[in-house]
Design brief:
- The protein is α+β, with helices and mostly antiparallel strands.
- The protein is built from 15 helices and 23 strands.
- Helix 4 packs across helix 6, helix 8 packs antiparallel against helix 9 and helix 10 packs antiparallel against helix 11.
Length: 656
């Protein structure tokens, strides 16, 4: 991989046979235009028809049922695809195949008939129909001239009655508050009963979760992930579209300013090949990660040039199209590329992936909007190496133009309920690293082992500790730090220092008496088993295309053994995964300082990664000038130096 591989030829997307020719003049990076987005939307919508119930009120797709049951799952199929249909209908000014409008009009009539065979489940406290009601409300607003205004009075009344089940109900205290906001605002727009107090209360509640810098937590705690963009930013702006003159102008101005600030960072979350960073829950929504990009253009709340907005969004859509999404039936399955249940949750049903419909929000922009007509501009990841410290979520982003990879270093998002709730972590939040070219091992056995991007205490029976609750210590410049308690009476504080593709982790381990210590690098996955190698103090895995994961002990690992962990069917990026790791039998007195280099790179400009080249590229010098103070000087091959001070009995980091 001497240069980032961007996009494959058109014949690499057989599941989208009707794609129009590429336009390399208007879209020199991706080749895709509005016509490509419309074609993909049509393919997704047409593929659902065989799974519709006779009255079109439900789409009962094949696959594992959610915990809400098949009736709710059928409603989900209708509501989420209705959102896609609405963007397609409204974006075309109603000039679509009439059967598309007719299907969703028929579904409204059948689904809201309480005595009919396809009746939708009612909206109850904290129940899944709340989520789907919001999609239906947004879709009805955006298609009002072609659907709502043409429904029979009796059907309109039934729809309002069903949506009105939201009034007075209790939602989950998270992004769900916004489902109530948009649904009841739609009811207000059509003169139906609603609660202005509930609308205002939901908007007021999200203020408690705003942490600055464009970042919301999805509820109490440190719950940072893609819900920040595709929910916490998106729904307030869609609410403003529904509310029109009823919306408080100062609220709307605040939402627009926050989105603008967020998008300045969000543009860095996509690799040059269009892949989003693989972090957080509900990753089966895939290219919904592009929704806030279009929201910024729609609300005139983006710092991005219009050609860059389209390049990043089209890159994300094309990235998945090249990897078999949708599948040969035209369906979005529960997975990332192919089917892969570990990226799902209990609430995920066969139609859940259709929240990806939000990615098509850009179709609401007119055809002559600059976001569709401007010449594509490269993303910032395409043109130069970058490093961004994001103190609100406790993250570092570092990307490299040579291979187009973005890496996220996690020192702040654990998605745990606030104390005293038990810390039950999961692999999409608990790791030190996430990336556009790699995913964590997430199958049950692999998660139990917990090797990749993790430092663990290993007890006498071989059980590895979990990271648990993450306590951030700050993120600034090229570094971020946090501490966690892997076991009772123990503590590990970690500072990550990044430069180019390199990440150096400085761990201060305390209270680990009688335990071994293991640290793993990136899990590297492919359809074929990666090539692996290991030796004294190092290990690596390499794919056929040159993408390499490596780990090297720089200090404190002299007595370590090295190996590579292999997993099958545990990784979203490929059937076979491999993770290089180091293991120490113990630490003297249970405490010590460990310095580790971890690398994920596809740049082989200077030859393939080897232990020798890695040790030459990054070094660490440790000076312990006091019993309670040590200085770690990290030197990178280009002469860049970073100094980390480890001090005090708790090993607090100096991030200045």
């Amino acid at each position: 991989m001497t240069a980032p591989r961007l996009f494959l030829p058109r014949d690499a997307m057989p599941n989208l046979p009707d794609l129009p020719p590429e336009d390399r003049l208007r879209s020199p990076v991706t080749g895709w235009t509005r016509a490509h987005w419309e074609t993909v939307a049509d393919r997704l919508l047409d593929a659902l028809v065989p799974y519709a119930t006779p009255g079109y009120a439900q789409y009962r797709l094949p696959g594992r049922a959610s915990h809400s049951g098949p009736l709710s799952d059928g409603l989900e199929g209708y509501a989420r695809s209705f959102l896609l249909a609405a963007f397609r209908i409204a974006g075309a000014g109603g000039q679509v195949d009439p059967s598309l409008i007719e299907r969703y009009a028929a579904g409204l009539a059948a689904g809201t008939d309480p005595h009919g065979p396809e009746a939708w489940p009612p909206i109850e406290d904290r129940a899944q129909p709340m989520v789907e009601a919001a999609s239906i409300a947004i879709a009805l607003h955006e298609t009002r001239p072609w659907l709502w205004d043409r429904l029979d009075d009796a059907v309109r009344a039934r729809v309002a009655d069903w949506l009105g089940g939201f009034v007075g109900k209790q939602t989950n205290d998270s992004n769900w508050r916004l489902f109530q906001v948009v649904t009841e605002e739609f009811l207000a727009s059509v003169g139906a009963p609603h609660s202005r107090a509930e609308i205002d209360g939901g908007l007021d509640r999200i203020e408690d979760w705003y942490r600055g810098g464009g970042w919301y937590s999805d509820g109490d705690g440190r719950k940072f992930d893609y819900y920040n963009g595709w929910a916490m930013h998106l729904y307030p702006l869609l609410w403003a579209r529904i509310a029109g003159p009823r919306a408080d102008p100062s609220r709307v101005a605040t939402y627009r300013a926050r989105l603008r600030e967020f998008l300045a960072t969000h543009q860095y979350f996509f690799g040059s090949d269009g892949a989003p960073v693989h972090q957080g829950r509900s990753l089966t929504y895939r290219f919904a990660t592009a929704a806030p990009l279009w929201a910024g253009a729609l609300a005139d709340a983006t710092p991005l040039p219009p050609g860059r907005t389209r390049r990043i969004a089209s890159g994300a859509l094309r990235h998945f199209a090249e990897r078999g999404v949708p599948d040969e039936r035209g369906l979005l399955t529960l997975g990332w590329y192919g089917e892969f249940e570990p990226v799902t949750q209990r609430y995920s049903g066969p139609a859940s992936p259709y929240w990806a419909s939000k990615a098509f929000l850009g179709l609401l922009l007119p055809e002559d909007h600059p976001a569709w007509t401007a010449v594509e501009e490269p993303s910032p990841v395409d043109t130069a190496d970058a490093c961004l410290a994001l103190p609100e979520p406790g993250w570092l982003l570092h990307s490299t133009a040579a291979d187009g990879i973005v890496r996220l270093v996690n020192h702040g998002s654990d998605r745990l309920r606030p104390l005293p709730a038990k810390a039950e972590d999961n692999p999409h939040y608990a790791k030190f690293g996430y990336a556009t070219a790699a995913a964590p091992d997430a199958g049950d056995a692999a998660w139990a082992a917990g090797v990749d991007n993790h430092i663990a205490l290993i007890d006498a029976d071989g059980t590895a500790s979990r990271r648990g609750r993450i306590h951030p210590l700050g993120a600034a410049g090229r570094r971020a730090a946090s501490w966690h308690a892997p076991a009772e009476g123990s503590r590990i504080e970690t500072t990550s220092v990044v430069h180019g593709p390199w990440e150096v982790r400085v761990h201060h381990v305390q209270g680990a008496t009688g335990a071994g210590i293991r640290e793993g690098g990136w899990a590297l996955a492919d359809d074929e088993p990666p090539i692996t190698a290991s030796g004294p103090g190092w290990g690596l895995a390499r794919r056929a295309d040159g993408l390499t994961s490596a780990i090297v002990g720089l200090h404190g690992w002299d007595a370590a053994t090295s190996a590579v962990a292999h997993e099958t069917d545990a990784n979203a990026c490929g059937r076979h995964s491999a993770t290089p790791y180091l293991t120490l039998p113990d630490l003297a007195d249970g405490s010590g300082l460990l310095v580790t280099l971890v690398v994920l790179t596809g740049d082989d400009t200077d030859g393939p990664c080897t232990a020798e080249s890695l040790r030459a590229a990054v070094t660490a010098q440790v000076t312990e000038d006091d019993v309670d103070r040590a200085v770690v000087v990290v030197r990178f091959g280009d002469g860049t130096e970073e100094e980390v001070v480890v001090q005090g009995p708790t090993g607090n980091r100096d991030l200045s």
